[in-house]
Amino acid sequence: MTASVLGRDFRLLWCAAVSSRFGDALRTPALALLAAAVTRDPRVIAAVTVVAQVPPLLFGLLGGVYADRWDRRRTMALVDGIRAGVVAALAVAVAVDRAGIVALLVAAFLLATLGTLFDSASFAVLPALVPPAALPRANGRLQAGTAVAGGFLGAPAAGVLFAAAPALPFALDAATFAVAAVLVLALAPAPVADPTIGAAAPRGSVWGEIVEGVRWLRGHRTLWRVTVLAAGSNLAISGLLAVLVLYALDVLRVPPAGYGLFAASAIVGGLAGALGAGRLAARLGTVPALCAVLAAQTVALSGFALARHPVPGGFALAVFAAGTVVWNSLWASYGQRHVPAGLLGRVGAAQRMVGLLTAPVGAALAGLVAAAYGTAPVTVAAAATFALVTVAAWRTLRQGFA
Known about the structure:
The protein is mostly helical. The chain contains 15 helices and no strands. Helix 3 runs parallel beside helix 5 and helix 4 packs antiparallel against helix 5.
């Protein structure tokens, strides 16, 4: 399946996603650097990260409702336009030296809240742009493009731009949101014949629509089980990420100057996984591919836990990251193919919420274990968790192998 077969609208969506991700990669480290310039209190600096993690849990399901109620193309464009305004205002505040910690917290919260609506609409719009059989490849292309834009271009440039002028990363981020909004508006409107999207469709209460989406997800055996499995794997992934830098420095003996190169191995692996997701799904089938990916990640994570040198550790991390990206691409594709069009926003939001519920738990447990016993047991526990998730997947998803 070539990019031309995926079509003009997919190319527009891909360009919008890449533009937005590039801006995100500029803004996120710049926010951390700006917070550190404002205060050295680690609790306050950590709060900037925390407030960005709360909105998906608070408003994710609500965002799914409105992604199903409103025109998704216009919703995405409007959200990106508002985000451009928020970041532009922050850039001005930074430029005139008026960006205090309150402004950073408010900006982080607003952007994350708006992101919940955008993510739901973006997840739901893709099936209208490409054929069902092309969804795994389309999702992989999206993840590959955003990985390059964020990991290889945006993240390395953020520190350089911030050093040149603290307001510069935020100004460029605002521009990327504006570009993304224009690109999304250029998408073809949703077909008028679809009665499930638009103001003309009869609507119940917001809570009733949330329940409808959650109930549909809970009633679909395979999708619900895959969602629960994702929550189990996120428990391990979040714990691993929480101590990754310490494990790399203390156990793998990665030199501090080489940590960026070590971390880049995950980006390379993720890019490879994104490009191969469609081929893997075509060869094995989506559900069997999901099970195979979990098995491969278990092996990779076990190797990472046993490694005591940067090279094998970096290789194992790359394989593990590749599996994570393949899983995310195929998981999204499976839902997009099986969920009714009018429920895509709500069901996708419910999937993300359930999948992310374990992330803060994993990070907190990893911190406690690492403080008491060191970082090595955390990686062993993460590998063991993946092994359990893999066994559960092969036992519960057999009906999807047909």
